[in-house]
Amino acid sequence: MQKLLLILMTILLMQVFADAVLSNSSLAIKDEGIAGSSLLKKYHPKKINCNYACLRRCRQASRKNVCNRACKTCCMRCHCVPPGTYGNKSACPCYASLKTHGNKPKCP
Q: Which domain of life is it from (predicted)?
Protein backbone atom coordinates (compact mmCIF):
# COMPACT_ATOMS: atom_id res chain seq x y z
CA MET A 1 0.00 0.00 0.00
CA GLN A 2 2.79 2.44 0.86
CA LYS A 3 4.63 1.59 -2.36
CA LEU A 4 1.50 2.33 -4.38
CA LEU A 5 1.01 5.65 -2.56
CA LEU A 6 4.67 6.55 -3.14
CA ILE A 7 4.42 5.76 -6.86
CA LEU A 8 1.20 7.80 -7.14
CA MET A 9 2.79 10.80 -5.38
CA THR A 10 5.85 10.56 -7.62
CA ILE A 11 3.68 10.57 -10.74
CA LEU A 12 1.69 13.57 -9.50
CA LEU A 13 4.85 15.50 -8.65
CA MET A 14 6.31 14.74 -12.08
CA GLN A 15 3.10 15.96 -13.73
CA VAL A 16 3.12 19.20 -11.70
CA PHE A 17 6.79 19.72 -12.55
CA ALA A 18 6.14 19.11 -16.26
CA ASP A 19 3.23 21.59 -16.26
CA ALA A 20 5.38 24.20 -14.52
CA VAL A 21 8.19 23.78 -17.02
CA LEU A 22 5.83 24.07 -19.98
CA SER A 23 4.09 27.17 -18.62
CA ASN A 24 7.43 28.86 -17.86
CA SER A 25 8.78 28.10 -21.32
CA SER A 26 5.67 29.56 -22.99
CA LEU A 27 6.03 32.69 -20.82
CA ALA A 28 9.69 32.89 -21.75
CA ILE A 29 8.80 32.72 -25.43
CA LYS A 30 6.22 35.50 -24.98
CA ASP A 31 8.69 37.64 -23.00
CA GLU A 32 11.40 36.99 -25.57
CA GLY A 33 9.04 38.09 -28.32
CA ILE A 34 8.23 41.30 -26.49
CA ALA A 35 11.90 41.96 -25.70
CA GLY A 36 12.86 41.14 -29.27
CA SER A 37 10.38 43.66 -30.66
CA SER A 38 11.62 46.38 -28.30
CA LEU A 39 15.18 45.63 -29.39
CA LEU A 40 14.14 46.02 -32.99
CA LYS A 41 12.59 49.37 -32.22
CA LYS A 42 15.58 50.50 -30.22
CA TYR A 43 18.38 49.43 -32.54
CA HIS A 44 16.59 49.29 -35.88
CA PRO A 45 14.38 52.34 -36.14
CA LYS A 46 11.60 52.41 -38.70
CA LYS A 47 13.01 53.31 -42.10
CA ILE A 48 11.50 56.26 -43.88
CA ASN A 49 11.97 57.46 -47.42
CA CYS A 50 14.40 60.32 -46.80
CA ASN A 51 14.43 61.39 -50.45
CA TYR A 52 10.67 61.96 -50.52
CA ALA A 53 10.51 63.48 -47.03
CA CYS A 54 13.31 65.96 -47.78
CA LEU A 55 11.93 66.90 -51.18
CA ARG A 56 8.63 67.66 -49.44
CA ARG A 57 10.42 69.61 -46.66
CA CYS A 58 12.60 71.67 -49.03
CA ARG A 59 10.13 72.33 -51.86
CA GLN A 60 9.75 76.03 -50.97
CA ALA A 61 13.39 76.70 -50.06
CA SER A 62 15.30 79.31 -52.07
CA ARG A 63 18.35 76.99 -52.21
CA LYS A 64 16.72 73.61 -52.77
CA ASN A 65 19.94 71.62 -53.32
CA VAL A 66 21.59 72.91 -50.13
CA CYS A 67 18.40 72.33 -48.14
CA ASN A 68 17.89 68.86 -49.58
CA ARG A 69 21.48 67.78 -48.87
CA ALA A 70 21.35 68.97 -45.24
CA CYS A 71 17.91 67.46 -44.74
CA LYS A 72 19.01 64.05 -46.06
CA THR A 73 22.00 64.02 -43.69
CA CYS A 74 19.72 64.79 -40.75
CA CYS A 75 17.14 62.25 -41.90
CA MET A 76 19.73 59.48 -42.17
CA ARG A 77 20.88 60.17 -38.60
CA CYS A 78 17.48 60.71 -36.96
CA HIS A 79 15.16 58.62 -39.15
CA CYS A 80 12.55 61.37 -39.14
CA VAL A 81 11.78 64.68 -40.83
CA PRO A 82 9.34 67.21 -39.33
CA PRO A 83 6.11 67.78 -41.27
CA GLY A 84 5.64 70.89 -43.37
CA THR A 85 8.16 73.11 -45.11
CA TYR A 86 9.31 75.12 -42.07
CA GLY A 87 9.29 74.80 -38.29
CA ASN A 88 7.50 71.92 -36.53
CA LYS A 89 10.86 70.71 -35.21
CA SER A 90 9.25 69.64 -31.94
CA ALA A 91 7.87 66.64 -33.85
CA CYS A 92 11.43 65.35 -34.28
CA PRO A 93 13.72 66.33 -31.34
CA CYS A 94 16.79 64.62 -32.79
CA TYR A 95 16.38 66.58 -36.03
CA ALA A 96 16.09 69.83 -34.08
CA SER A 97 19.11 69.14 -31.86
CA LEU A 98 21.73 68.67 -34.60
CA LYS A 99 24.07 71.67 -34.87
CA THR A 100 26.82 72.80 -37.26
CA HIS A 101 30.39 73.59 -36.17
CA GLY A 102 29.26 77.22 -35.74
CA ASN A 103 26.55 76.03 -33.29
CA LYS A 104 23.77 76.88 -35.74
CA PRO A 105 20.92 74.49 -36.54
CA LYS A 106 22.11 71.96 -39.12
CA CYS A 107 18.75 70.74 -40.30
CA PRO A 108 16.37 72.92 -42.34
A: Eukaryota
